[in-house]
Amino acid sequence: MDVLLEILTTMLEQFQKPTLAFLIGGMLLAAVGSKLEVPAPVYKFIVLLLLLKVGLGAGISVREANLLELAVPAVGAAVIGVAIVFLGSRTLARQRGVSRVDGLATAGLFGAVSASTLAAGMAILDSEGIAYEGFIGALYPFMDIAALVTAIVLARLSAERRAAATLSPGRTATMTMRGGLGQGNRGASANGELAKTILIDTFRSPAISALLLGLALGVFARPDVVYDSFYQPLFQGLLSILMLIMGMEAWSRLSELRGVAHAYLLYGIAAPLVHGSLGFAVGLGIHHVTGFSAGGVVLLAVMAASSSDISGPPTLRGALPEANPSAYVGTSSGLGTPVAILSIPLFMALAEIFIGFWSATK
Amino acid sequence: MDVLLEILTTMLEQFQKPTLAFLIGGMLLAAVGSKLEVPAPVYKFIVLLLLLKVGLGAGISVREANLLELAVPAVGAAVIGVAIVFLGSRTLARQRGVSRVDGLATAGLFGAVSASTLAAGMAILDSEGIAYEGFIGALYPFMDIAALVTAIVLARLSAERRAAATLSPGRTATMTMRGGLGQGNRGASANGELAKTILIDTFRSPAISALLLGLALGVFARPDVVYDSFYQPLFQGLLSILMLIMGMEAWSRLSELRGVAHAYLLYGIAAPLVHGSLGFAVGLGIHHVTGFSAGGVVLLAVMAASSSDISGPPTLRGALPEANPSAYVGTSSGLGTPVAILSIPLFMALAEIFIGFWSATK
Amino acid sequence: MDVLLEILTTMLEQFQKPTLAFLIGGMLLAAVGSKLEVPAPVYKFIVLLLLLKVGLGAGISVREANLLELAVPAVGAAVIGVAIVFLGSRTLARQRGVSRVDGLATAGLFGAVSASTLAAGMAILDSEGIAYEGFIGALYPFMDIAALVTAIVLARLSAERRAAATLSPGRTATMTMRGGLGQGNRGASANGELAKTILIDTFRSPAISALLLGLALGVFARPDVVYDSFYQPLFQGLLSILMLIMGMEAWSRLSELRGVAHAYLLYGIAAPLVHGSLGFAVGLGIHHVTGFSAGGVVLLAVMAASSSDISGPPTLRGALPEANPSAYVGTSSGLGTPVAILSIPLFMALAEIFIGFWSATK
Fold first, then answer.
1. From CA C286, how far away is CA C280, in angstroms rounded?
2. Main-chain phi, psi angles of A222, to 5 degrees
């Protein structure tokens, strides 16, 4: 009972903090039909600044970090990304009314990472004075790319298998073979090609390339002055605007879910909690092995709970044009993202209970 | 003579301060035909930040304020809003060449409040170190909504009366009945409906909903950190850009007034001064009853003097489609707003004379 | 050898500083095909803030400056602008495959000034703690306008001479006479008209009018508070975004140069270094006569090395519609601007050798 009470208290307190309060405020605005809107160019610019900030911060830390210290959580992040997609392929993608490719696309999006959700987690920990490894931002691409590549490869393999099954009775192949995939032993090299294409597309996507640029500048240049005078001080304020936008977006996306199977509703609400717990468990393991901080464990859980809202959708739309965007984007932006952001206090409460912020970091 | 000199000196000094200097600079740029422009998405975003800032600041203050202390100026603000519209319906709306609906729409806009003008007033008082009640921003919707609703209801009633008069001789009604208004005893309930629609539309307008969101977040959440680190420090700078835009806009709107009656020119110049004096008088009364600060009296006068530039026009266009926008928007943006902003030092001089900033606030 | 080593060391160090690192980062992003983009309205707004900042800073300094102190560098700046265009008309504009008007337009652009490059120079000097005259920003229009007017007048004169030559054999004039230019003794007054039109167009261009507005506000108003609280603190951060955009732009413009003569490639790379050295020499002369600071000499060289990227192209497009924009804009944005920015450390090294920052400014 005390534990539950503690969790509830932490969550209620956090709902009053700027980050979550602006998210809820945005949802309320959309719910009452407000005509307020943040122009798209401004939204894009805020996301760019936020990604550069996370990348620069991570890069500056990586410069001074022991690379071995970074290696273990990086492998952990990639493993979580892959695991989330396999989990989705066994659960969501097997439900009635859910096509295999739609289910896998949704699982890929939930395995990928939301920079905004991660930034929200960092802002909340910062405002509580809870320390975490500076290189955390550098873990983002490991989980993100692992999940997207896994989801797309699984979807392609499944499409190919079905195509082979359809063809085997001897009918003439009249279907369009997207991506030029063949059958039989040509599959392996085609999958290699495919994985390469996905990797390149992902690296070129605005979100990942902004993050990697920030990372590279942080590691190889000396951007500390401009980081301290511009990116760091504006971070919380710009994040508050972003949360407002995401809250409004989440509410308006909810209506898109009306047309799709109920399985998506359940997945959108439950998956962030399940994935976050998985991320928390992996983080806890790393904590016991390498002394990974309690704040770092929380952020790994937040990354796992989050679903990609910026870089993921265009990557999936490009690689899996047959998947239904209103299913995967609706589930992710309408349910996954707000649930993930609102569950940040939950992971903080878990970390307080299992590790303790003050004993672990001081 | 000394009083006049004091007023003139205050005004000249203020014209050199950033807020007014950027407004005049914008007018000069437009006058010499500069091709400088601030992109519309940036303009919208600046207005959003400014409204959130005013709302948040007011909300944080309301949280700690005695609600009774707020009640008296709030009623005063609403009374001023209604009074300005009735004044306009007796003066402007009765001039030759001014249709009744155009006159009432213009009066409604001049009764409504400009967030930018209010922000300019706050910035000028801040830079002079003059204190005012933190909850002032919370008075905005009272005056704004009271004026818009009064103007639209009066215009509707007048249209209905004329329609009834036209119909009474027994001719067939072929005119379009906007808003589904009937005659006779159906009028009362239709007006109730209408007022409700206007209220909902006004609350959903971008400006009012941004302000109320800020207010709600300030009251119910704890946005103090992000307010102090982001909204407050950026305020003066963003306002300087906004003043630049408004100056350019004012100059270019002036040409729209060429086609309309001269009565609009006179109203656009005189109304801000008359309304501001009315607001000042009401504020002075409240000062003597409740100890309302001299800075608060100035800002109430500034709100009364200002005419709505953001939320008002779309509300009026929606509710009174038969009114001519180049009359009411031209008069408001081309004359009313710059005159109101430039007369802020006048109200400060009046407050200095009638109350005294230093004796009243220290 | 030691001198070369010193220059190389200074340059390598500077490449790690935010300003140049973001420029190189932008070029790398474009080179690997990243889909990252900064929305155009945001780009325009950043440029506006930067020009206002440079103008305000210069205006505040001019207010307190000895105007005679400003006069000598201003004349020097104008002379450099004219000299660069004449140099280009003797070299680039006489190459095979380069039409006279294209060559002169390109020379005009290279004589004009880039606010971004100048801002980059200021940011780098600031971060090194190297002092320079506050009024430097006020020199911008002298060099910029002198170069553009010279280039356009030369191009018009040359077109007229050719037209006269074509007409003299007695053929009927069927060509369109742009700008209404006549022949013979009508030429002089037409040129006067033309120069006036160019001047007015240049003053009305967004870049020059933003700069002059800042300058005027700095001189005649008291914008110091908003300058210190907004324009100055945001400067380095916004510049880092601008450098990112310019790096991406430079890379994508390079491809436009494929279709034009090789002479443009050589000019684009060599001209910034030659012009910068010319500017440095003039600055060094002024230093010996009036005690112009070492930082001021560097910035005069940077202005000379830079080529106009914002105000120049539209002015030229308006005045010389027959010139090929992919030649002059491609050469300037694709080669001239990045070479100029990357050569800032070179001029710093020269100033260190010829004047010495610490002996000269302390």
1. 10
2. -125, 70
In contact, C117 and C280? CB cutoff 8 Å: no
Cβ atoms of C40 and A41 closer than 8 Å: yes
Tokens of B309: 């530039």
Residue in chain A closest to C37 (alpha carbons) equals A206
Model confidence, pTM = 0.85
Q: CA–CA separation, C211 vs C209, rounded Å?
A: 5
Q: Which of B203, B206, B225 sits opposite A37 (nearest CB)?
A: B206
Length of chain A measured in residues: 362
Residue C135, C-beta contacts closer than 8 angstroms, at least 6 positions apart: C58, C61, C62, C65, C69, C70
Alpha-carbon separation of residue B182 from B152, B161, B322, C53 (angstroms): 16, 11, 18, 59
pLDDT higher than 70, residue C118: yes
Query: For residues C250 and C333, is the Cβ–Cβ distance under 8 A?
Result: yes
Token pair 């060094």 in the structure block, residue: C284
> A230, A241, A311: best mutation site toward chain C, by most C Cβ within 10 Å?
A230
What phi and psi values does residue B281 have, to the nearest 5 degrees? -65, -45
Residue listed under structure tokens 């952020």: A299
pLDDT recorded at residue A179: 40
Q: How far apart are CA C342 and CA C298, in angstroms?
A: 13
CB B123 within 8 A of CB B239: yes
Cβ pair C217:B22 closer than 8 A: yes
Element (H, E) at C189: helix C186-204
Residue among C101, C18, C29 at smallest CA distance from C250:
C29
Structure tokens at C99: 């039409």
Q: For chain C, which residues lie within 8 Å of any Cβ of chain A, measuring from their own Cβ?
A: 15-18, 21-22, 25, 28-29, 32-42, 127, 233-234, 236-238, 240-241, 244
- Contact list in C for residue B234 (CB cut-off 8 A) is 230
CA neighbor of A45 nearest in space, from A310, A250, A352: A310
User: Neighbouring chains of C at 3+ CB pairs within 8 Å?
Assistant: A, B
Q: Which of C37, C46, C153, B67 is nearest to A209 (CA)?
A: C37
Which amino acid is present at C295? Answer: G
Segment A97-112 mean pLDDT = 92
pLDDT score, position A181:
39
- A101 neighbors A92 (Cβ within 8 angstroms): no
- Dihedral angle computed from the Cα positions of residues C172, C177, C183 and C188, in that order, rounded to the nearest 10 degrees: 180
* Average confidence (pLDDT) over C134-149: 90
Q: Taking Cα atoms as reference points, which of B78, B329, B317 lies closest to residue B201?
A: B317
The C-alpha R_g of chain B, in whole angstroms, comes to: 20
Q: What average pLDDT does range A293-298 have in this prediction?
A: 95
Q: Are C340 and C276 in contact (CB under 8 A)?
A: yes
Length of chain B: 362
* Calpha distance C36→C50 (Å, rounded): 22
What is the rounded CA–CA span in Å between residue B101 and residue B325? Answer: 11
Q: What is the mean pLDDT of residues A47-54?
A: 90
The string of DSSP codes covering B103-163 is HHHHHHHHHS--HHHHHHHHHHHHHHT----GGGGGGHHHHHHHHHHHHHHHHHHHHHHHH
Angle subtended at Cα A112 by Cα A109 and Cα A117, rounded to the nearest 5 degrees: 100
Q: Which two tokens stand for residue A189?
A: 């090299």
pLDDT of residue A180: 40
pLDDT digits (tens, 9 = 90+) for A56-73: 988 898 888 878 888 999
| Residue B23: closest C-alpha in chain C | C217
In the block, which residue shows the tokens 């983002």?
A140
In 3D, which of C103, C65, C88, C19 has the Cα closest to residue C290?
Answer: C65
3-state secondary structure of B205: coil
Which residue is closest to A221 within chain C, CA to CA?
A: C16
